[in-house]
Structures are given as structure tokens and as C-alpha cells.
Amino acid sequence: xxxxxxxxxxxxxxxxxxxxxxxxxxxxxxxxxxxxxxxxxxxxxxxxxxxxxxxxxxxxxxxxxxxxxxxxxxxxxxxxxxxxxxxxxxxxxxxxxxxxxxxxxxxxxxxxxxxxxxxxxxxxxxxxxxxxxxxxxxxxxxxxxxxxxxxxxxxxxxxxxxxxxxxxxxxxxxxxxxxxxxxxxxxxxxxxxxxxxxxxxxxxxxxxxxxxxxxxxxxxxxxxxxxxxxxxxxxxxxxxxxxxxxxxxxxxxxxxxxxxxxxxxxxxxxxxxxxxxxxxxxxxxxxxxxxxxxxxxxxxxxxxxxxxxxxxxxxxxxxxxxxxxxxxxxxxxxxxxxxxxxxxxxxxxxxxxxxxxxxxxxxxxxxxxxxxxxxxxxxxxxxxxxxxxxxxxxxxxxxxxxxxxxxxxxxxxxxxxxxxxxxxxxxxxxxxxxxxxxxxxxxxxxxxxxxxxxxxxxxxxxxxxxxxxxxxxxxxxxxxxxxxxxxxxxxxxxxxxxxxxx
Length: 502
Ligand SMILES: Cc1cc2nc3c(=O)[nH]c(=O)nc-3n(C[C@H](O)[C@H](O)[C@H](O)COP(=O)(O)OP(=O)(O)OC[C@H]3O[C@@H](n4cnc5c(N)ncnc54)[C@H](O)[C@@H]3O)c2cc1C
What we know:
Blueprint (H helix, E strand, L loop, with lengths): L11 E5 L3 H12 L3 E6 L10 E4 L2 E4 L13 H9 L6 E3 L4 E4 L7 E3 L3 H11 L4 H18 L10 H10 L2 H4 L9 H7 L6 H15 L8 H9 L8 E3 L4 H13 L3 E4 L1 E9 L2 E9 L4 E5 L2 E4 L3 H8 L5 H8 L6 E10 L10 E5 L11 E6 L11 E10 L1 H6 L3 H16 L10 E7 L1 H8 L30 E3 L10 H17 L1
Parallel strand pairs: 1-2, 1-13, 2-9, 6-15, 13-19
Antiparallel strand pairs: 3-4, 5-8, 6-7, 10-11, 11-12, 14-17, 14-18, 15-16, 16-17
The protein binds flavin-adenine dinucleotide.
The site of flavin-adenine dinucleotide (FAD) has 38 residues, from α1, β2, β10, β14 and α16.
């Protein structure tokens, strides 16, 4: 069903992907008067922040914690503009309980700043000057980001948005632009504090894909600072799906259209402009949908693929040179409440040994449902545990099922050291691998979490929402400010503002 009425309509926008980035861009554009069509190859919107149901349990596919719900936070701002209610949410306190190998007591990342300060002073004596630097950089960077800079700037308007977001205190962050967390640790004589480094490696791997040595300091300041008041992390009531469901409602309320099970196979380019997209539906029918603007809510690798031989060569080369990204192995357990220890925090992180790179199948990030949060029937709970894994292991393995079984057995046995897991308490069990993520979210090789927040790929050096092709925009976790539902919402807002000015 080609949209022939869309030909030559300058307000016609096609959004590829109904992840949080695409839905946010689509809903905002519809609200601002554009004729929006959002397409997604999956059957459920939300991408990595969607859910699935099994035997009365609701499992969050990937994202389980949400930032940006507080007044002034990005989801709060966007939901206010869309005139929809924010989902009900419980603050995560602690944001995470981190267990290092052989340690019975966790490092608890408390929501209250004073309590977290006392905790880290006790856990990492002598490191307070390092933490104070992070706290200062977080304050300056957070205020800067909330003034909506465009990063990285690609034209005069972008540059103007960047300049007007600067304040004297932003300049205090500039000397740290090229520093990593590793550099800051050395500056404060903490390079050999193995316990602190391990904690930072674990937490940063979650948020930036890379360890402390390689994570850009300015990114780390934000990722590590956002868990405390007046910001904070939240656990949504119901499930993560409620975030996308509300964005879909807003999109439709403002006249936008969403087609699920519709895959975009190619973006057509004429000169330097997109003219439309080639769509295939679930019946195998294909057609070209004209568009004046195309917003791609896909990974930057997928974008290059969708452009094929029309991709600008420099852009393509840059994407090809990116360090390889991580995939995720995730195990989803539906359990009897008896499996959950009393006072269990909603989010935990375990490191099991110091072998190999931190986070590569030697750690688990665990999310546990809370009674009454809508994820499990009464007297039951969900446990979702994820670890990082190299997607190539999964694409090249000789016996995929055997590898999946091995990872599953290992994860269950590790989780059983903390949870009371047995045949009697595990009521449902399944797992997802990079192959599952490739299938359900169409992300190339099933990579998750963006391009990694190294100095060379963060902020001014990252991928822009403004691509080298006019009227073709990239939103989502490949762009500034990076992964997470809050991060991709910022990129969506940036692209929407750029489209309005284009
Ligand atoms: C295991 C795991 C745990 C995580 N934990 C958290 C967390 O606790 N908190 C947090 O904030 N973030 C977390 N994240 C990260 C977060 O989920 C993502 O960064 C974010 O949801 C990405 O959103 P997105 O819109 O960029 O892309 P995606 O979620 O990848 O959405 C892209 C959409 O585009 C569709 N699509 C792709 N190609 C095409 C095509 N050619 N045609 C049509 N449709 C297409 C896909 O089907 C998908 O729906 C986690 C991620 C994972 C994997």
C-alpha cells in the first residue's frame, strides 16, 4: 500500500524502528505537525526495552532500570510535551548492590548522596578526591546536557545550539575531554587500588560497554552520578513495555501511524536526499514508501547496510573501523517467591572471578521483580540476569544449542549461590543470545548497547544524529549521549529539533 498521497509532502517522515528512540522521535514529530509513519520489523514495539509474557510472568527483554523520570529528566520532559502520563515507577534504592568475588557483603550504590558517600568512603578508603571530581563533572555536564546542546555539531545551527548551552562551569569540563577514568585514577594515586578499579570496571561495562581504563571520564561522571537524588534510577510498575505503549498512544493521538511486522529493506537516495524506503510486510509484499525525511532508529552498522552502495564512503569506513561491540546473554527465570532472599534489592551485580576481561561472561547483572510490580503472579517473582558476550562466538559456533545450554547451566548455577534455585522453585526458564537479539531487534550480529563510550566515540567524537545525507537522521544508542532509554530519548529530541530547522 504505497502512500502515493505522500509524494512531495515535505512533512512526510518515515521512522525506521519502534524502539524508544524511534517512538520518541515519531511521537514528538507527530505532535509538532508532521505526518509520521513508524515501521518496525518486530511484532511488539520497544526493541531492547520491550517485554514478553510466559505462563503469567512478564519479562523485560533487555532494559530494566530507567533514568530521566524525575522532573526535568528527559522522559519527564518528553512525556510532558506529549501530554501523556509518566508510567508509575519505584525508585531503585540501592540502584545496584555489587558483589565482588568471594565477598558476602555488597557495595550498595545508595540513592541518597550522603549515604552513598559514606558507603564509598568505607568501601574505598582514600578515594574521595576522585569521587569529588566525578561529582563536580557530573554537575557541570548534567546542567549542560539539560540545555540541549547538539553533539557532535555538523552545521552552523548545531554549533549555535552547542554554544548557547555552554556556561562558565561547562568550560571546567573541557580539560577532561580527552581523559579516561583510568587517567583520573592515576592522577589521584589510585591506579593500583584493585578493588575500586574492579567496581568501576563492572559498573562502567554496564553503562559504557568498556572498562574504566577506556571509558571517557566525562561519560563516566554522568553514568555513575545519575543514580543519586535529585536524579535516580527507577523500576517501572507493570513492565518496561509501558514506556513504549504510552509513546505509541501519543504517536497515534497526534495522527501518526505505526506498522509492526514491516521491515525496511533499503533507504532510497537521490542526489544527497532520501526519497523513500523500501518496505517488506509479513506477507512478503514489498513497496516503496515516499518520504521527505527518514529517521533511522537502528544501529549505525544497520544504517550503513540499509544504504548499501549509496552510503557515503567516509561514513562507511568509519563504521567499519569501530571496535567490535558486545552482545548479551540473558537468562529469564520465573520463580517461586521462596527463591528470593528477604530484603533482596531489585538490582544486583555479581563478579564471579578475575579471569578474562571484566564483564565477559564472568559477571551477571540481575534484575528481580518486586511484589506487586506487575511482573509475576502473587507469591512468584521474575529474575533476569544478563552477561556480556562476544557475538562472534554465537554466529560461528558449530553447535548453537549446546553452547546456549552451557551458558544457561552456568548462569543458573552461579545465580543459585545467591538465590534459592531448584527444580521446585524454578517455574519457567529461557535464555536469549546475540542470535535472539539479532532476530527480535534486527540489530546487526545482535550487538547491544551502542558503540561504546571511549574518548574516541563519545560526545564531540561520537556519531551525530545528523548524517552526511540531508534529511536522513540517526537516533538511538549509536548516537550521543549513548545507550539507555534516557540516552536514546535525548538523541530523538535532538533529531526532531534538527528536522524542524531543516
Ligand atoms: C540486556 C540489556 C539490558 C539493558 N539494560 C538497560 C537498563 O537497565 N536501562 C536502560 O536504560 N537501558 C538498558 N539497556 C539498553 C537499552 O535497552 C537500549 O539502549 C535502548 O532500549 C535502545 O533503544 P533504541 O531505540 O536505540 O533501539 P532498539 O531498542 O534496538 O530498537 C530498534 C527497533 O528498530 C527495529 N528495526 C531495526 N531494523 C529495522 C528495519 N530494517 N526495519 C524495521 N524495523 C527495524 C527493531 O525491531 C527495534 O524494535 C539494556 C540493553 C540490553 C540488551
